[in-house]
Design a protein that fits this description.
alpha/beta, about 240 residues, Rossmann fold, about 40% helix, 8 strands, 8-stranded mixed β-sheet
């Protein structure tokens, strides 16, 4: 099944297509982590015929998700800290995160993900990665301003292996980033033109984040240092 181009996250629709192609196990319950993940949550609910919980970390994202999914009956949206959720241990067959956990508190989030997954449950994660062991200063500044802590691409397997995850398969989706940042930059420009000064002030942090990341990737040579890898992992027994 071809997925309409509609997911505006690093990896675009390719991460969900990767999941759909490679996960054949039955899924009864799934958790989707991260803002702007409404479409992946809907697609997982539809294509795997399962119940889905979507969690976001801030009130603005919660309101936005509820507005987008107002007619959805299979996706439940909640405001939660990614590293300390309200779910019971072993609640989910599948957890899906698209560019939402490559951040400074990743270790604690992964620990919580492991707690939430059933034995031999699946994690489909899209990781923003560093293509160089030592990124230049301007890229470190971008990472810091966006609260990103990318893993070095060659260390992904070791990182997850140490946490009792087996990489079943992976796909390099770095080629989606140019389109993602181009679309984000265009959308940002369109949104800013229609915001009041008060709204611009309210969204200042988010607007600056998108602007800095897009500008770094498209104009400052960030494409040489940032990659994106989709992985399908399985938790140990």
């Amino acid at each position: 099944m071809s997925v309409k181009k509609s997911i505006l996250l690093p990896g675009l629709d390719k991460q969900f297509e990767f999941l759909q192609k490679n996960l054949t196990a039955k899924v009864e319950s799934a958790l989707v982590i991260g803002s702007s993940s409404e479409k992946p949550a809907e697609l997982i609910a539809k294509n795997f015929s399962c119940s889905v919980n979507l969690i976001v970390q801030d009130y603005e994202s919660l309101l936005n998700s509820r507005l987008i999914l107002v007619d959805s009956e299979k996706v439940k949206i909640s405001l939660m800290d990614f590293e300390i959720t309200d779910f019971d241990a072993g609640s989910f067959d599948l957890i899906y995160a698209q560019a939402s956990i490559s951040i400074t508190n990743r270790n604690k989030i992964i620990k919580e993900i492991k707690r939430l997954l059933k034995p031999e449950g699946y994690l489909c994660v899209g990781e923003i990665v560093s293509l160089e062991k030592k990124a230049p200063t301007f890229m470190k500044d971008i990472f810091d301003s966006s609260d990103l802590l990318p893993l070095f691409v060659d260390e992904l397997e070791e990182y997850f292996a140490k946490r009792d995850f087996q990489i079943l398969t992976q796909q390099d989706l770095t080629n989606t980033l140019k389109e993602y940042y181009s679309k984000s930059f265009s959308l940002l420009k369109e949104i800013k033109e229609n915001l009041t000064e008060q709204e611009k002030s309210f969204y200042k942090k988010l607007l600056n984040k998108v602007n800095h990341e897009s500008n770094a990737y498209l104009k400052l040579g960030g494409n040489r240092f940032i990659g994106f890898i989709a992985l399908l992992l399985q938790k140990g027994k």
